[in-house]
């Protein structure tokens, strides 16, 4: 990508969190958005003392994303690697850390395969999402392993206290035979809320791998020109009740089952069936006026089965099973929030997590547990704000790990907030990293891997005014024993990696105009003194910029998104180069009757070819048309 393009984007992107969360009464609040992920307690974005972005349901309907990857691409610190079109495996790299260094929660429940360590973001239905909170930087002192690069929490839709039942429905058609439908009901009153929905998606897809992969010995390792179809069926529900004394009981459930075709072989399969399952319950009450207790329990499952059907080097294979990997996480937490004095809060608690894998592949170990105890102090003294946190984790495999964080903020009289923070984190290797058996006599795992550890420092300056926001965050993260794959795809520990970055956001609302922009400048480098010293870490772009522009014209809304990314590499040796690229998306909507709206989107308008994973195709120019009823 040309540096002049990034320079122009920089003028629009020197900024801080221009976030638009929903307040507890369901109304949009641009001045004091309420978030819970940064500290595990309800605070405003100004009090977070960390780099935070919040995406609301209003944003989702305005941007018209087809997938979670569409929604997150171009946000500060975010790099996406996708192995094909809709439904293909999606990896998210936050602030240059590994894709396994991002903790993803759905309504407070940790998700992700315990086999490969990745959350299946491609399987999460966008229509189920009410809000996403993205917290960048280490949060291991509150959440334990995996929160090295940050935390992303997805909140599903909740019913509103309107005193009645509200139906909703949407139907979408588009390029490559794309069809999506969703229907649900929601409602509630002063005490009760509920929401339930069913939906599905189909697309004929595109070829996942470009031709020549077999000869190049990369990506799919085969040439398969067929289109990779994708089917998904999903449902979600949540409901809760709040008593007059503040006691609250809530339940949430989400299930997403998909059938995704991909380029493969009789050894790896070319047709996968994957099921995501998330269920959780939360009880909160106050034994004393200064003491709030929250009990959480949940389970997430990632079940994956692969099959092969087709011709391979002239031999035809009828449909046959090639393997399965079923992973399960059981988790529970006990959190206590104690008000010590005005503007002083102490949080202490215990988390427990058990990971288990069942597979036709013989893993040496199939289960492990982790118990974490944590404490956090939040205090405000005049214009000064302090946050301190510490955590002790005991992992069945890797023993004890201590992590901590400290942050200080100063609120200037005219609005800007200066923050300085420091944090440590760790990440335990996955089951695949440690125990996946040799393939054809060739090792694919490394039982000698050590846990990854990190320390980060960050400085930020932010300001939020009535109609516009600005700011900037600079950080450095040093990772010891970073896990990376060598030329034979065997995981190894790099003694050291160093990541430096600068992130900006800028947004304003002026009359009927809304502009939101983001910029990331980053150096994610190998720093272990080996032959690859100074090379970029795989699949991370050093520079990205995104600008969203929308305007309301009566019942019409029109908008555009411009995104640009610099080059990146797919290997630690930096020999597999993927060039920089830029895309433009256009969108429009028309509210033609109360509760009814028609939406249109044209993505990648100029049909640019690009890769975010080496030799894997991405969607070219595509269109989508949606009819929505949501009173």
From TrEMBL:
What name does this protein carry?
TonB-dependent receptor
What are the subcellular locations of this protein?
Cell outer membrane
In the record, which residues are listed under signal peptide?
A: 1-21
- TonB-dependent receptor-like beta-barrel domain span: 227-605
* Domain of life, source organism: Bacteria
Principal place where this protein is found?
membrane
Which keywords does this chain's UniProt record carry?
Cell outer membrane, Ion transport, Membrane, Receptor, Signal, TonB box, Transmembrane, Transmembrane beta strand, Transport
Q: Which InterPro entries match?
A: Beta-barrel_TonB, Beta-barrel_TonB_sf, Plug_dom, Plug_dom_sf, TonB-dep_rcpt-like
Q: What Pfam families does the record point to? A: Plug, TonB_dep_Rec_b-barrel
Q: How does it sit in the membrane?
A: Multi-pass membrane protein
* TonB-dependent receptor plug domain ranges (all copies): 46-151
Please give the family membership noted in the entry: Belongs to the TonB-dependent receptor family.
């Amino acid at each position: 990508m040309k540096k002049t393009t990034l320079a122009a984007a920089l003028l629009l992107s020197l900024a801080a969190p221009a976030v638009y969360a929903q307040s507890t009464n369901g109304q949009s609040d641009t001045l004091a958005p309420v978030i819970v992920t940064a500290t595990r307690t309800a605070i405003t974005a100004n009090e977070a003392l960390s780099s935070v972005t919040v995406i609301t349901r209003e944003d989702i309907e305005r941007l018209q994303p087809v997938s979670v990857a569409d929604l997150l691409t171009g946000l500060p610190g975010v790099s996406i690697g996708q192995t094909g079109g809709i439904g293909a495996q999606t990896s998210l790299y936050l602030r240059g850390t590994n894709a396994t260094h991002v903790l993803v929660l759905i309504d407070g429940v940790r998700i992700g395969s315990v086999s490969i360590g990745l959350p299946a973001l491609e399987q999460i239905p966008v229509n189920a999402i009410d809000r996403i909170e993205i917290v960048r930087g280490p949060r291991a002192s509150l959440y334990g392993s995996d929160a090295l690069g940050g935390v992303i929490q997805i909140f599903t839709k909740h019913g509103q206290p309107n005193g009645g039942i509200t139906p909703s429905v949407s139907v979408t058609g588009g390029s490559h035979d794309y069809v999506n439908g969703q229907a649900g009901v929601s409602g509630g009153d002063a005490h009760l809320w509920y929401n339930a929905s069913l939906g599905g998606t189909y697309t004929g897809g595109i070829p996942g791998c470009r031709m020549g992969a077999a000869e190049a010995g990369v990506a799919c390792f085969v040439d398969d020109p067929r289109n990779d179809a994708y089917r998904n069926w999903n449902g979600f529900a949540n409901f809760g009740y709040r008593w007059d004394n503040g006691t609250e009981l809530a339940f949430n459930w989400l299930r997403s089952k998909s059938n995704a075709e991909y380029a493969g072989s009789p050894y790896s399969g070319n047709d996968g069936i994957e099921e995501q399952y998330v269920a959780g319950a939360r009880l909160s009450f106050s034994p004393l006026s200064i003491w709030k207790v929250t009990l959480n329990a949940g389970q997430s499952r990632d079940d994956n089965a692969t099959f092969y059907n087709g011709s391979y080097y002239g031999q035809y294979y009828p449909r046959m099973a090639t393997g399965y990997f079923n992973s399960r996480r059981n988790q529970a937490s006990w959190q206590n929030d104690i008000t010590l004095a005005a503007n002083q809060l102490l949080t202490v608690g215990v988390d427990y997590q058990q990971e288990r894998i069942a597979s036709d592949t013989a893993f040496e170990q199939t289960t492990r547990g982790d118990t974490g105890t944590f404490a956090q102090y939040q205090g405000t003294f005049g214009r000064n704000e302090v946050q301190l946190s510490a955590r002790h984790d005991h992992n069945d495999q890797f023993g004890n790990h201590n992590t901590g964080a400290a942050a200080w903020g100063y609120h200037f009289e005219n609005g800007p907030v200066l923050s300085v923070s420091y944090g440590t984190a760790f990440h335990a290797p996955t089951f695949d990293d440690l125990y996946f058996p040799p393939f054809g006599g060739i090792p694919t795992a490394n039982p000698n891997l050590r846990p990854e550890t990190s320390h980060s420092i960050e400085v930020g300056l932010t300001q939020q005014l009535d109609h516009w926001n600005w700011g900037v965050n600079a950080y450095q993260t040093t990772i010891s024993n970073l896990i990376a794959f060598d030329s034979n795809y065997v995981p190894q520990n790099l003694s050291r990696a160093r990541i430096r970055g600068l992130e900006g956001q800028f947004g304003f609302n002026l009359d009927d105009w809304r502009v939101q922009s983001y910029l990331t400048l980053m150096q994610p480098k190998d720093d272990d003194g080996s032959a690859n010293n100074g090379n970029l870490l795989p699949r991370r772009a050093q520079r990205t910029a995104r600008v969203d522009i929308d305007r309301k014209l009566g019942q019409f809304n029109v908008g555009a998104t411009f995104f640009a990314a610099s080059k990146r590499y797919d290997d630690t040796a930096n020999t597999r180069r993927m060039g920089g690229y830029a895309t433009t998306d256009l969108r429009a909507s028309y509210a033609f009757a109360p509760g009814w709206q028609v939406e249109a989107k044209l993505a990648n308008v100029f049909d640019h070819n690009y890769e975010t994973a080496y030799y894997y195709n991405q969607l070219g120019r595509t269109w989508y048309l949606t009819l929505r009823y949501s009173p």
